Amino acid sequence: MDEQTSVLTQNFTTGKLFKYVMPTILAVLLASLYSIVDGIFVSNFGGMSAFAAINQVAPVFMIIAAIGFMFGTGGSALVGKVLGEGETKKANGLFSFFAYVLIGIGVVASLILTFAMKPIMIALGVTETMMPFCTAYSNILIPAITLFMLQFYFQSFLATAKKPGLGLLFTILAGVTNVIGDAILVGVVANGDPIKAVQGAAISTAAGLFIGGVIPLFYFICKNKSLLRLGKPEMSGKDLAKACGNGSSEFFTNISGSIVNIVYNSLFLYMIGDMGVAAYGTVGYVNSIFTAIASGFVLGVSPLISYNYGAGNKDNLKNLYTKSITIVFIFSAIATVLIEALSAPLASAFSHGDAKLMEITVDGLSIFTLSFLFKGIPTFGSGLFTAFNNGKVSGIISIVRTLVFNLATVIVVPIIFFYIFGSSYEAAFYGVWYSVVFSELFATIMTFGFLKKYQKNYEYA
Prior knowledge:
The protein has helices at 3-9, 14-45, 48-84, 88-123, 131-141, 145-160, 164-189, 194-221, 237-246, 248-271, 274-311, 314-341, 343-348, 355-368, 372-387, 391-421, 425-458. It is mostly helical. It has one domain (13-458).
């Protein structure tokens, strides 16, 4: 047994497991900071309309980038299982095949968005004041969409290749590039011009994506000491479909989440105007931090689960499951308390001195944060079934959670609040925020049902 394989088959304590997944958690967290850093700079140097604009158009790019998440999580689960079965050559061939297909999809997606972006923005209800900023931001990011997808793809596979630390390094370099670019292009060069501020933020993000997507590409092309290398593809439509099926939950999670963001943006745009979109954008940034940490943990532990499942190590599998559930519970509780305590400072970072925007954001964040108590379990449950190559159950959890429950509660809960508290702005406002809490509660109950149902099939408990 070589050193790389022995790492996969060790009996993890909670501390060792946390140490192993930490690089992946930090890498995903830092990657999520792209938009947050852009938001801080644009809100303070470009104004509220510019800040609202990038939040209105960002979900479109996340929907496309979700393809990279699908190939990365689904493909790495399949490749990890193949590695566990001892078929190293096939694993490398599938890894290469998935990467080449993804690059092709990225190029086509950029071409389509070049012509379709303006009609999409009109369909989203982008206001006249926001349209110039949305256009300026989109025109720069559209050519970089392939890099966006590759960054997500390679982040998953660096964990599978047992190089999570390298993934963290690439992400740090990308993040530093983005921050420096924002500081120079938005904070200095833009000189208070909102359009230039938005363009500077987009250029900085694209530069970061270049490092996060291209450097790992060359790492895997060149001879390296990891378990994986890009080379001759194993061209298998069946395995490609299997990988996409495995990663469908992460794909639909991102798509559904983006759709839900669009719905919430539209609701707040109707209720409050640009200020409502700006407030929801701030809450969305905080949510993205929680989601990144939870997703990073799942991405980090999934290769261990896939490998031990493929190798038939039942004791290790049970140990990983128990330790993972414990970590998720503790993290969810700590995150909820911490964000509640920091709601005012977090809101002030994006309010650029606007007292009304600050008030709305703090109110929304204080309510929304309660959903963190329930978000961790559905995220882990979906990732667990992806690691078992059960894309069907993983997809059901993700789709029902992010699309069905979210959209249903955002309609029903405000109506209930209207009935209880009367027809008022406050009832609608608080009803929309509380809908997320109820949605995640229902998702947690559903996930526990699936975990109970399948524990004998996979013998993880």
